[in-house]
TrEMBL record:
Taxonomic path: Bacteria, Pseudomonadati, Pseudomonadota, Gammaproteobacteria, Enterobacterales
A GO biological process held by the record: D-alanine catabolic process
The protein's name in its UniProt record: FAD dependent oxidoreductase domain-containing protein
Similarity field: Belongs to the DadA oxidoreductase family.
Keywords: Oxidoreductase
Stored InterPro entries: FAD-dep_OxRdtase, FAD/NAD-bd_sf
Domain FAD dependent oxidoreductase: start-end pairs: 4-213
UniProt GO MF annotations: D-amino-acid dehydrogenase activity
Matching Pfam families: DAO
Length: 241
């Protein structure tokens, strides 16, 4: 499939994994091999969005952070405004980009097949540089990704369909801790990890919901592709709009 799509890849035996990820040398006896995708990259989505917002502000965009949106007001087949508390904000065009919450906000106007997919992450301070990852590793058994963010290790994964329940479940944390300790035993101070959970917007086939509606709303709800999250789909979705 990768060849058909023109995606470069390498199949590596266990002893060669340490050539691209040196810290795996200590645990190579546990590994059979790996699939390397040399063109894949890892990014910091928080850094990306904050810098993108700063660039947008320089271009004249005004952001209204920490503003609750109560409802979309409509008259006939058009949106008349956005109700935010006692204020009604009007515009020439409206884009719905609420992720997992888009379905509820559009209820009664447009039906879209978007639901939340719950995932978890650990952010771990690095303990020993030579024991930490230098790139990104995906444990295919548990579907957990481990990547390097400067002096932190980010561990993320899981996929639960539990509605909007954002409870932090200890068994999920223990699974992620087990995986990172198994692959990078000297890499991080796991006991100091920050545990987090979030909701990825998902559609039945992973395709983003993009397009104009009868109510003259442009929908842009990037859906998650496997466990990657909606970020990779967002720029392309907005370019289509």
């Amino acid at each position: 499939m990768l060849e058909d799509a023109g995606v470069p890849y390498q199949l590596l035996e266990a002893k060669r994994l340490a050539e691209v990820e040196p810290a795996l040398a200590e645990v190579s006896h546990k590994l059979t091999g790996g699939l390397r995708l040399p063109n894949d990259e890892t990014g910091d989505c928080q850094l990306f969005t904050t810098r993108l917002a700063a660039m947008a502000e320089q271009a004249g965009v005004t952001f209204r952070f920490n503003t609750a949106v109560d409802a979309l007001l409509h008259e006939g087949d058009r949106i008349a405004g956005v109700k935010c508390g006692d204020e009604i904000i009007k515009g020439d065009a409206y884009v719905m980009a609420f992720g997992s919450y888009s379905t509820a906000m559009l209820k009664g106007l447009v039906d879209i097949p978007v639901y939340p997919l719950k995932g978890y992450s650990l952010t771990i301070p690095i303990a020993q540089e030579d024991g930490a990852p230098v790139s990104t590793i995906l444990d295919e058994t548990y579907k957990i990704a481990i990547t390097r963010f400067d002096q932190r290790i980010r561990v993320g994964g899981m996929a639960e369909i539990v509605g909007f329940n954002k409870a932090l479940l200890q068994p999920r944390r223990e699974t992620m801790e087990m995986v990172v300790r198994d692959l990078f035993p000297r890499g991080g101070h796991v006991e100091q990890a920050t545990f987090w959970t979030g909701l990825r917007p998902m559609t039945p086939d992973g395709t983003p919901v993009v397009g104009r509606t009868a109510y003259k709303i442009c929908g842009s709800t990037p859906a998650t592709a496997r466990l990657a999250g909606p970020w990779p789909a967002a720029p392309g979705s907005l370019s289509a709009i």
